[in-house]
């Protein structure tokens, strides 16, 4: 399980918004991210870059798997594992009962 981010969601949204707003003032996007990260006290510029890329993917301006799609895939993988486990139990039960039917029974 992933640990919770030390940065609140509102700060992340604000930082991403600020990068978009100040981008024209800098030569590169990285320089804009570095300035915003410093201004907001975000540990590393890489953290902010990750947030910006995630926002771009979620908004459809950059190709990739959105947060919603990732959550769906994770839920489907969990469901698939549960179904495989249940299938294994059912196969074991079926073979047990099939073996019981093959045994000769003494009638009293």
UniProtKB/TrEMBL annotation:
InterPro entries per record: Homeodomain-like_sf, Transposase_8, WH-like_DNA-bd_sf
Coiled-coil annotation: which residues? 66-93
Q: Record's Pfam families?
A: HTH_Tnp_1 (PF01527)
Cited Gene3D superfamilies: Winged helix-like DNA-binding domain superfamily/Winged helix DNA-binding domain
- Keyword Coiled coil included in the entry's annotation: yes
Q: Which domain of life is it from?
A: Bacteria
Q: Which UniProt keywords apply?
A: Coiled coil
Report the protein name in the record.
Answer: Transposase
């Amino acid at each position: 399980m992933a640990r919770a981010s030390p940065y609140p969601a509102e700060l992340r949204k604000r930082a991403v918004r600020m990068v978009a707003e100040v981008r024209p003032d800098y030569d590169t996007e990285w320089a804009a991210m570095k300035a915003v990260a410093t201004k907001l006290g975000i540990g590393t510029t890489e953290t902010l870059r990750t947030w910006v890329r995630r926002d771009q993917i979620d908004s459809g301006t950059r190709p990739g798997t959105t947060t919603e799609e990732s959550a769906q895939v994770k839920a489907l993988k969990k469901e698939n594992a549960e179904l495989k486990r249940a299938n294994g139990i059912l196969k074991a039960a079926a073979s047990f009962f099939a073996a019981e039917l093959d045994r000769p029974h003494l009638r009293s």
